[in-house]
Amino acid sequence: MEQTVYPHVEIDLGKLEHNLSALCERCRAAGVSVAGVVKGFNALPELLQLYDAAPVESIASSRLDQLRRAAGAGVKKPLMYIRVPMLSEAEEAARWADVSLHSDLAVLRALNRAAGALGKRHRVILMLDLGDLREGFWGTQELVAAALEVERALPHLELYGVGTNLGCYGSVRATPEKMEQLIAAAGAAEAAIGRRLEVLSGGSSNNAYMVMDGTQPRRINHLRLGEILMMGKFWGCDLSGWMHTDVFTLRAEVIEARTKPSHPVGELTVDCFGRRQTYQDRGPRRRALLAVGRADFGSPCDLLPRDRGVEVLGASSDHTILDVEDAGRPIRTGDVLEFDLTYAGVLFLTGSPSVKRYCR
Ligand SMILES: *Cc1c(COP(=O)(O)O)cnc(C)c1O
Fold first, then answer.
1. Residues assigned a catalytic role
2. Residue pair 254/330 in contact by the 8 Å Cβ criterion
3. Which pLDDT value is given to residue 251?
4. Could you tell me the pTM of the whole model?
5. How far apart are the CA of 261 and the centre of ligand 1, in A?
6. From CA 336, how far away is CA 155, in angstroms rounded?
7. In angstroms, what is the span from residue 205 Cα to ligand 1's centroid?
8. What's the average model confidence in pLDDT over 196-215?
9. Which residues line ligand 1 at a C-beta cut-off of 6 Å?
10. What is the torsional sign of CA 238, 240, 243, 244?
11. To the nearest 5 percent, what fractions of the chain are helix, strand and coil?
């Protein structure tokens, strides 16, 4: 058998599949179809297959290269590009995505030309910024003007619907009131173009709590879900008992374990990232070094030790420093420690070329 390589992220496909089925079923019962967002795990091929077979309506990413890989891997579901395309990639967007989100008429016009040249009809969802201050037309008037132009003057685009995104930059909560604003704007666009819009894409994992407690207005019939499917939990949304929160496991190997002082010895300046740090003096403590670092996971606070009594003290680009004085077992060089991960931890680690991936 091949030797296990560290560090690695292990992905429990059975648990992920359960999360997808369970949550999509809840959404379906609420009249909501789901785009499965795969950017959070860098669209790993084995997981793409799983999403393609799951009850999600489409596969979505904010990275066009991931959609290109999905198409190349033979994914059958429609591919949705959920970052507004760059003007310079309109042709690639038309080629690899079936649906995309928009907030700029220049991009829509370029996409229309590109889709025409490819002999394709590309579906577009116009985004309305409801105050989170990331992508979106500002105000109903701007949205309606764009809808009219797409409908009347851009024949290679199909005006598929309208959508919004909340929470990602401005931390604005997705609420029934915000959804009503989207529905009202959709109504204005429908009045202008003289037909009903197919899709009202209400948001992301931020919206899931409204599906659970039945407060999401019925006209919202589409969500783009990433984090909540992967992590089995989401801030402010009670899913306790029926989702798996341990789909992803990081395993890393100890390369040094010994007792040292807990406060650095000498004149303190800045750490390897140029930051001034503070250190608590707890006297001599047993510490362990892991062969994995911030180049792999971003921030050490995204690593959550599964061993009780193990504490993450910090990390440099290639090392993670742990306090293991109170660990339930003696930690030695060569030991392997397990960690739960945050969404950010999974995002970084699955993208690191130095971290192996195992699916089981
Ligand atoms: C990332 C993203 C999502 C998914 O967000 P989650 O919080 O992971 O569910 C939805 N919509 C857009 C536009 C995104 O960029």
1. 39
2. no
3. 98
4. 0.96
5. 44
6. 58
7. 7
8. 97
9. 37, 39-40, 62, 82, 101, 165, 204-205, 224-228
10. positive
11. 35, 25, 40
